[in-house]
What does this fold into?
Amino acid sequence: MSRDERRWCVGASLAVMLLTSIPYLIGFQAGRPGWVFTGFVFGVGDGNSYIAKMLQGAAGAWLFRTPYSSLDVPGVLAFLPYLLLGKLAAGQELHAQLVILFHLARLASIPLLVFAVYRFSALFLPESTWRRWATALTILGGGLGWLLALSGHGQAFGSLPLDLISPESFGFLAVYGLPHLVLARALIFFALTTYLTPGSGWRSGVWAGLLLAALVLVQPLAVLSAYAALACHVFVLLVLEAAGRQGESVGPWARKAAITALIPLPLVVYYAYGAFYVPALQQWAAQNILPSPPPVHYLLAYALILAPAVVGARDLIRSDAAGGWFLVAWIAALFLLAYAPVTVQRRLIEGAWVALSVLAARGLRSVPIGAARRRWLAAGLLAASMLTSVLLLAGGAWEAIHPSVPLYRPAGETAAFHWIADHARPGSIVLATFDTANALPAWAPVRSVTGHGPETAHLAQIEPQVEAFFGGSLVGVAAERFLDDQRVDLVLRGPAQDEGASWDGLPSARLSPVYDHDGYVIYSVARKE
It folds into this structure.
């Protein structure tokens, strides 16, 4: 990379960092009496869970145990970036510190991704102009989600548009609020660039493998995309060699691919074993349901750049058969993975958007329409692709201006959270309604009975009982049995549970009020002798 290219990457990173911070800066503004900003403008439930993981790290944890279940589960080497981030916080206003650290990590990961994608695109795009275009499209672009949303067909074909719900399918959602996914994507493309650089020898396989090992610690599922890339590259080289179109020996590449894949393999086996043989993690995996929408959604998602990507693939194959067929094969493999018989299909297309963006840039570069028209076409496609990102930014800013749940929590509720943090034994089990239970572990180092879809084991069975308890229909002996089964130490009741719900049938002898303020009451639960 030249000095100008590095300067452009730094400038582009700063611009993205500023743009994606605007809604959060609005949310952090003072002067919103009665409300406390969670620190998130989308995916708030998951956002609260990330802060809860950081709070575990701040409390000294090195292994992750979900705070959204009353079951005792073994600690696992998961969510390590958030546990490590939490160790940077201490003292007062811990929640605010953790949220700020989360966003600092998000901002710090953006330049890594910009440089990683730019360097990867340089393998296939000779001119810096098209590398910049591909990088900008990768980071800020989207599909036709904006068109479906504005036309009132946001749920067409049974799903929201992918650019509104799938950070793996595009790039903007990740840089907008998911630092671990940004870091994971950067690690994938740093690793692939290191591996694919010609003449780099077996040592580059070692470095690529170490990068993939770091990837597994950040986002284990994403390594499947990298493994698919390695397999596709070697397969393409073998086919080209068999067809007499490959000039160099496949052997060194195969050995380098093997080194790259083997280094992170122990970690991959560790996570695979947990998913298949550790009961708590099995349940977690079974509840983490992210199916791919019908294929038409992927066509709509990538419709804007599909034609230039096809042209780019043809052009690249003519000049670099191995590189061109590698990108085509990898994209095809990722789309097959997206419909594999697993619960997390949508997660497995990671990397396809970057590869398509590079091919689209290559296609626009080769279209014989004159330099001026080509520039206008490229600018138009980029602008159209960014409209969904503009909608997401505008929507986030609008929501931040108008405080309401879930982006904000009532101040009375967070005061109750602080009381629990100050008075409850760490790890205490607290019973609250789902929405409150999701936010609570982000403020206090305790465990909720429910609160998170994948992480609350047996949620489908437990949640109706929680609703019945707070709704007043689970009473007497059944209520006592539920409290005992879940080993509840505290019950948090808020104004929402007082609307039309009677607690007359609850075991009052077991529940002692220990906090009552602003409509929030905390009960201590006496353990049954």
About this structure: The chain has a mean pLDDT of 93.
